[in-house]
Amino acid sequence: MAPFSLPAPAKLNLFLHINGRRQDGYHLLQTLFVLLDHGDTLDFQPADTLSLRCDNPALPVDDDNLVLRAARLLQQETGHTAGARLHLRKRLPAGGGVGGGSSDAATALWGLNLLWGLDLDVDTLARLGLSLGADVPVFVRGRNAWAEGVGERLQAVELPPLWFLVVDPGVSVSTARIFGDGELTRHTPAITLPASLGAATFEAFLKEGHNDCEAVARRLFPAVDKALDWLQSEAGNARMTGTGACCFAHFADQQDAHNALRHLPEYWTGFVARSTEISPLHEALATLRARQNSGPA
Ligand SMILES: C[C@@](CO)(OP(=O)(O)O)[C@H](O)COP(=O)(O)OP(=O)(O)OC[C@H]1O[C@@H](n2ccc(N)nc2=O)[C@H](O)[C@@H]1O
Ligand SMILES: Nc1ncnc2c1ncn2[C@@H]1O[C@H](COP(=O)(O)OP(=O)(O)O)[C@@H](O)[C@H]1O
Predict the structure, then answer these.
(1) Which amino acids does the record list as binding ATP (predicted)?
(2) Residue 197 CA, ligand 2 centroid: distance in Å
């Protein structure tokens, strides 16, 4: 098969409520995932052995990288022995709460499924993904979703189109550190997802929500605290995604989001992105499959 590239989009948790804790220490959550049109890219090339390169020298390219872990898991699961030459082009901040590592893993699962002709279905890939991390299944399925349980019970949702400004305060936040904090609120009452999320219901639903991890992240990471305050004064609806560090605000149109980005203090980075109905990964997979089916020109 000819070399190909696939996107690994970012996600935001529009809110994140912690409703309790399981016996094994894992937290029970309610969260609303939205997939963005901005993210990393993974290049795939057939090869006899497995190898990974990454343009960000701060990231490991051994079995600590979720891309290689996903690849080895697929080999174990299917007994497939061929390799692949993988190149990860990183745009998403690691430990940023935008799910970069999880999304890279989901893209690796789908891309290698195609490259190796494995023909595994979406449920199998989501099950394998969950063993790599709680956030991997939402990227495998590729739809905006309401998540419950420890994040594995997903219900696809249709959301009105939104523009976001995402601010990276430049710190990497460990998910385990936030969840291990003694002051984390773990008893937000469970809420019910409205039957449909039109523009007005959606705004009201968002206002009802919050991120329980924000207070801990603000305390442990002053840069997160400052970024949230800045976004709040700029846009009025600032929130943190996941367990941090990135913060975001949503805007009615692209222009307003870009205007806010222009005011961003130079010591932070940020990007403007749009919500997607279908993940850019799934759009790209559909194009690749159509090209394959139409055969050589
Ligand atoms: C809470 C979320 C929301 O999106 O935070 P972010 O990581 O995106 O910031 C995620 O579900 C995180 O998913 P993920 O990053 O895949 O976490 P995992 O690797 O599965 O877990 C890392 C550690 O976080 C803790 N953990 C994770 C998920 C959960 N529901 N309860 C937990 O207590 C556990 O200590 C676990 O060892
Ligand atoms: N491909 C990858 N991209 C980013 N981080 C990775 C990757 N593989 C493993 N990691 C590790 O996973 C950690 C969390 O990564 P990431 O998914 O970006 O954070 P978050 O879950 O906060 O969005 C990083 O600190 C890094 O050590």
Answers:
(1) 93-103
(2) 31
